[in-house]
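Dear colleagues,

For the upcoming journal club I promised to circulate an example of a predicted protein-ligand complex. I picked one with 9D3 because it came up in last month's discussion. The inputs are reproduced below in full, followed by the predicted structure.
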Amino acid sequence: MNVFTVVTIFPELIDAFGITGIVRRAQDSGHVVLNTIDLRSFSVDGKGKIDDAPYGGGPGMVMMVSPLRSAIRAARKLSANRSTVVYLTPQGRPVDQDKISELTSIEHLVLVCGRYEGIDERVIEDDVDMELSLGDFVLSGGEVAAMAIIDAVVRLLPGSLGSDLSASADSFSAGLLEHAQYTRPECVDGQYVPQVLLSGNHAEIQRWRRKQSLGRTWLKRPDLLENADLSQNDRELLQEFRAEMRAAGDAALDGGG
Ligand code: 9D3
C-alpha cells in the first residue's frame, strides 16, 4: 500500500483531488491512502500565522520553521513505515517518468507544498529528503505539483489502469512519442484515417505505428531522439518517414504551383 501525505495551507484542494478519478479508485480499492495536513493548525500564535518577513529584507513572506517542522513530524506519524519527505520547489530537480517510477516504491511520501517566497532554508536542511520541480515555469505554490506527482505515481500502482497495459507502451517509458490515434468515422470533413489501419494486417500496422512514433518524435521532440538507442530497423523507418514527408511536401508544392 502507498501512503501520500500532503502538507499544505490548502488541504481542501488536495481533498477535492482525492475524491475523484484514479486517486479515488485507488483509495477505494485499498491500494492508496491520501492524507492532508493543514499547516495552519500548527501555527505559532494559534491564529493561523505560519509565515514571517524574510531576514535581510525584501518582498513577500517566508514560511516559518516551527509550523512546518511540526506538520512534517505529524505527517510522518501517519504511517508506520519510514517516510520520504519531498519539498516541491522550482529549485528542485525536474521530475521525469523515471523519477515517477522510482517514487512508486516509496511506502510513505510526504509532499510539502510551499507558498509565498518559499520556506525557511533550515527546514530543507533538516527535514527534507528530496526537492522536486515540475519544470522551468512559475507556479503560485506546490499544491498543483503535489497533485501532478501523486496522479502520475498512482496510475502506475497495481490495480490502476495505467499499471499494466498502457504503462509499458507510454510515451517516455519507451523514450519516444506515441503514434497518432484515430477512431470512427473513417472520414470526417474530408480527413481520412490512414488506410493501413483499416487493412487488418497486424504486422503492417505495427510497422506503421513504429515509423509514426519515430517520425513524430523527430518532428516534435528531437531532444528525445538524442538519448534513444535506435535499432538499424528504427533508423530505416525514420529515413522512410522523412522521405515520405519530403514527397508530401513536393506534391503540395506541385499542386500549388
Ligand atoms: C515570487 C517568487 N519567485 C521568484 C520568481 C520564486 C518562487 C517561489 C515560489 C517561484 C515560485 C514559487 C512557487 N512554486 C512552487 O511552489 C513550485 C513549482 C514551480 O513554481 N514551478 C515548477 N515546479 C514547482 S514545484 C513547486
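Two points we might discuss: The mean pLDDT is 95. The domain at 2-163 is CATH 3.40.1280.10 (Alpha/beta knot).

See you all on Thursday,
B. R.
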